[in-house]
Specification:
The radius of gyration is 45 Å and the shape is elongated. It has helices at 5-14, 16-41, 46-86, 101-137, 156-162, 166-169, 174-177, 180-184, 226-268, 276-305, 317-328, 347-364, 415-425; strands at residues 141-145, 151-154, 191-196, 201-213, 216-225, 313-316, 333-335, 342-345, 372-379, 382-389, 429-434, 441-447. A hairpin with a 2-residue loop joins strand 4 and strand 5 (216-225). A five-stranded antiparallel beta sheet has the order 2-1-5-4-3. 55% of the residues lie in helices and 17% in strands. The two termini are 75 Å apart. The protein contains 13 helices and twelve strands.
C-alpha cells in the first residue's frame, strides 16, 4: 500500500538535514521579515527595493547554507565509514582534520576502530589457517556436525576412514555415516568403542564436544585410531621383551652348553680320569647355579607384570619412614620433617619402595659411612619426598629404570623399575640424579596428598 501524502511529508520533515534547514530558516525568518518591512516602508524606487530584498535574502541564505553543510557533511562521512565497517571493508578512511572539533574526533575514532578491526580480522584469518593446517595434519579423525546432525567438516584423517573426498561426505547425516550413537552420548569423556568403517573395523577412542557457532549449537566429534597405536606399542613391547630375554637366556645357555660338552668329553674318556667325579660334580654345580639364576630372572619379570593395583589410604610419612629405618637397622638415616605430613598411598607398596631406595642408599654409602637424609613437604603438586645420600653417586643414570640392568655384583635390576611402576600406579613419579653440591645421589618422589574433610 502506498503511503499517503501527509505521512510522506512527516517522514521528509523528520529527516535530520531537513530539520536543520528548517531550524536555520526559522532562526533567520525574524531578521529577514524585519529587513523587508524596512524596505517596504522606505520610499525608494522599485528596482532598488527588489535589489535590497534579494541582497538581504542572500546574506541570510549563505550563513544558513554554510551551517547546514558543516552540520550534515560530517554525518555523511561518518555514515559512509560505518557502512564500510559493517560490510567488512576496513580500507576506507575519513579525513578528520577537515571538520575538527567533535565530528573530527568521532571520525578519528572510527579510523582507529577500522585499524583495530583490520588487525583482528588478519589475526583471525591467520589463526583459522593455522587451525585448518593443524586439523588437516593430525592423525585424529575430526567431524563437525550442525544442530541437525549433518556433517559440516571432515579432515583428511576422517575422509580416509570412508575412502571418500570431503565434498562427497558433507551434508550427510550422522546416521548415514554410522556415528549417530557417538553424538547421542552425554558428557565429554573419552569412550573406547569398536567402530565399523568402509575401510576397516577396529577399536577407537571417541569424544564428542558441543560448541556454538553463529549462536547455533554444533557437535565436534574426535575419533582416535587406537588399533594401530596399540599394535605399535605391543610390537615395541614385545621387541624389548624378546631382546632382554634373548640376551639373558643366551648369556646363560652358552656357558651351560659349553660346560655340558666339556663334561660329555670327560665321561667319554676310557679309562676315566681319576678326578672325573670332581670335574663332573663341579660342572653340574655351575650348571645348577646358572639355571637357578635364569629361573630367578624369569621370576623377576613375572613379579613386574603381576604387581597388584594399589589400595590407597592416608599414610603418615614419618611413621612409615621410622618403620622402614627400624626394619633395615639403618641408624645413619636422618629424618628431617615433621610428623603431620600424610600422603594418599598403599602403605605396603610404599614400604616396598622405601625399603628399596634406603637399601640402595645404605649400600652406596657403605664404604665411606656417608650421611643419608630423608625429607618431605606438602606442595601444590602433592607430597614431595627427597632421599639424599653422600655416597659414590650414579655411574650410568640413563639405565637406572631398565629392567635387569644393574652394576651390583649380586643385584637383580628389578628394584628401581618396580619402584617406578608402583609410583606411576599411584599417579606419582620418581626422579633419580647425582647430587649437585657433593658426591652422592638425590632421589625425588611425588605422591598425592591425603584428602582432608
Amino acid at each position: 500500500m502506498r503511503e499517503s501524502v501527509p505521512e510522506r511529508l512527516r517522514e521528509f520533515i523528520a529527516r535530520y538535514e531537513v530539520r536543520m534547514v528548517l531550524a536555520c530558516s526559522l532562526a533567520a525568518l525574524p531578521p529577514w521579515i524585519f529587513v523587508w518591512i524596512l524596505v517596504l516602508e522606505t520610499p525608494q524606487p522599485a528596482a532598488a527595493i527588489v535589489a535590497l530584498g534579494v541582497l538581504s535574502t542572500a546574506l541570510i541564505y549563505l550563513p544558513c547554507r554554510y551551517l547546514w553543510l558543516k552540520s550534515v557533511r560530517p554525518f555523511l562521512t561518518i555514515n559512509n565509514l560505518v557502512r564500510s565497517l559493517n560490510e567488512g571493508d576496513y580500507s576506507v578512511r575519513g579525513i578528520d582534520i577537515a571538520y575538527g572539533g567533535t565530528p573530527g574526533e568521532v571520525i578519528q575514532g572510527l579510523n582507529e576502530l577500522s585499524n583495530t578491526l583490520k588487525k583482528m580480522r588478519l589475526g583471525e584469518q591467520e589463526a583459522h589457517l593455522l587451525l585448518s593446517r593443524m586439523v588437516a595434519e593430525v592423525n585424529i579423525a575430526v567431524f563437525i556436525f550442525d544442530r541437525l546432525n549433518r556433517l559440516k567438516l571432515a579432515n583428511p584423517a576422517a575422509c580416509q576412514l570412508y575412502a571418500r573426498a570431503e565434498e562427497d561426505l558433507l551434508l550427510e547425516s550422522a546416521t548415514e555415516l554410522g556415528l549417530d550413537e557417538l553424538l547421542r552420548s552425554s558428557g565429554e569423556s573419552h569412550r573406547l568403542v569398536e567402530l565399523r568403517f568402509p575401510t576397516r573395523i577396529d577399536r577407537f577412542s571417541a569424544r564428542s564436544v558441543t560448541f556454538h557457532k553463529d549462536g547455533r549449537p554444533h557437535r565436534l566429534l574426535l575419533v582416535s585410531d587406537l588399533g594401530k597405536l596399540l599394535a605399535e606399542q605391543e610390537r615395541s613391547s614385545w621387541q624389548q621383551l624378546l631382546q632382554v630375554l634373548g640376551h639373558e637366556i643366551n648369556n646363560s645357555l652358552v656357558p651351560i652348553k659349553s660346560l655340558a660338552e666339556t663334561l660329555h668329553t670327560v665321561v667319554d674318556n676310557d679309562p676315566l680320569p681319576e678326578d672325573w667325579q670332581q670335574d663332573v660334580s663341579g660342572g653340574l654345580d655351575i650348571i645348577s647355579n646358572r639355571a637357578g639364576g635364569l629361573h630367578q630372572f624369569v621370576q623377576g619379570y613375572a613379579e613386574l607384570t603381576r604387581l597388584p593395583s594399589p589400595q590407597p589410604g592416608p599414610v603418615p610419612l614419618r611413621r612409615l619412614f621410622e618403620h622402614v629405618v627400624t626394619l633395615l637397622g639403618a641408624d645413619r638415616v636422618q629424618l628431617e620433617a615433621d610428623a603431620n605430613t600424610v600422603c594418599n598411598a598403599d602403605p605396603y607398596q610404599m614400604e616396598q619402595v622405601l625399603v628399596n631406595l634406603l637399601q640402595n642408599a645404605l649400600e652406596a654409602t657403605a664404604d665411606n659411612s656417608g650421611q643419608i637424609v630423608a625429607r618431605w613437604r606438602n606442595s601444590a603438586a602433592g607430597v614431595e619426598v627427597e632421599i639424599e645420600d653422600w655416597g659414590l653417586g650414579i655411574a650410568n643414570p640413563s639405565n637406572l629404570f631398565v629392567p635387569f640392568f644393574t652394576t651390583k655384583p649380586n643385584g637383580s635390576g628389578i628394584g628401581l623399575p618396580l619402584c617406578r611402576q608402583i609410583l606411576e600406579n599411584h599417579q606419582g613419579y620418581i626422579q633419580i640424579s647425582n647430587a649437585e653440591n657433593h658426591t652422592g645421589c638425590l632421589v625425588r618422589l611425588n605422591l598425592p596428598a591425603a584428602t582432608t574433610h
